[in-house]
Amino acid sequence: MMYICIRVTDSSKRCVLVTGGAGYIGSHTVLQLLLGGYKAVVIDNLDNSSAVAINRVRELAGDHGPNLTFHKMDLRDKSALEGLFASTKFDAVIHFAGLKAVGESVQKPLMYYDNNLIGTITLLEVMAAHGCKKLVFSSSATVYGWPKVVPCTEEFPLAAANPYGRTKLFIEEICRDIHQSDTDWKIILLRYFNPVGAHSSGHIGEDPRGIPNNLMPFVQQVAVGRRPALTVFGTDYSTKDGTGVRDYIHVVDLADGHIAALNKLSDTCIGCEVYNLGTGKGTSVLEMVAAFEKASRKKIPLVYAGRRPGDAEIVYASTEKAERELKWKAKYGIEEMCRDQWNWASKNPYGYEPQDHTA
User: How confident is the model at residue 359 (pLDDT cuts 50, 70, 90)?
Assistant: First the structure.
């Protein structure tokens, strides 16, 4: 039997539910959705995000702002979720909601399994009950564990190295099983590499609670004077300068990847597919710090420490599949990433809600 893929890309009538849409990647994706003519309904429990981000997205969207609706809601609240699906017809769901701190997941694995897995299962049950079977899921390169070779292709063996990564991996497996059981489901799993940067306006960006887990939010907090120095873990890797190498991707490129994935869900022959979203290039910690210093004209004091257990040496993506099948390719380099990150940090040194960010 020969299948012909037909794609419907008229976004003007499409309503997308975005879980975790007040978060870092979620808020940037919601803005790109609105600018692309979609209606967006955001649900978020605001555990690690801010309603201020939603208000700013609405402002940045201009004439499209009225197409954004927000509900404070926890995905595990099934009755509330049922009520939302009963009152609104969704064409697709983009699922960001979840806890995401690797270290915290090691300390509190049950909290991560409860939030990330139970929340997702509840969402999938309600989607199925209401006949909404199109999903874009926010997965992660952590599902590759510590890859032996690079670049990472989508066919690499999967082996998450911590509870956070395992929740992503388990949810991927759940999605594959659902599609196997019911081929009406169309699911795209997006494995992100290292999202950085901010919207060029400087009005939305990354605002982690407490001590940042990732390099760039830590760097920006040093630059604005909130922290004294950046600790560089590992200086003896087999890399050009001895520091670890990662694939950093501008958050706006990442957001555009979700729009491309939504368009792909309109193909009649899509099943359950996985795509890497990265730049396909590796950048070392010291290279990234140097680029940020240049963008911000600030000196970042460094403290050198030994390797952290579990940190991989070099990780970057193969992006050929996304380029070929999603017609998507990252546009921005580390200069733009650092420029936009500094623009956000300098305008919002304490994030969205300064009174909550004195840690």
Answer: very low
| Whole-number Cα distances in Å, 170 to 113, 131, 278 | 10, 23, 22
**3-state class (DSSP) for residue 111:** helix
Residues 27, 48 contacting (CB under 8 angstroms): no
Q: Which two tokens stand for residue 120?
A: 């997702």
Give the whole-angstrom CA distance, residue 76 versus residue 126. 11
What pTM, to 2 d.p., does this model score? 0.95
CA angle (178 as vertex; 193, 327 as ends), nearest 5: 40
Active site residue 164: yes
Neighbours of 239 (CB within 10 A): 18
Assess contact for 30 and 21: CB atoms under 8 A.
yes
pLDDT tens-digit readout, 139-158:
999 999 888 899 999 999 99
In the numeric block, which tokens belong to residue 289? Answer: 């710090």
Give the model's pLDDT for residue 268.
Answer: 81
Residue 358 has pLDDT above 50, yes or no: no
Residue of 24, 144, 164, 332 marked active site: 164
Identify any residues that bridge with 19 across adjacent strands, giving them in sequence order.
43, 95
Q: What are the C-alpha distances in Å from 260 to residues 3, 220, 284, 287?
A: 21, 30, 28, 30
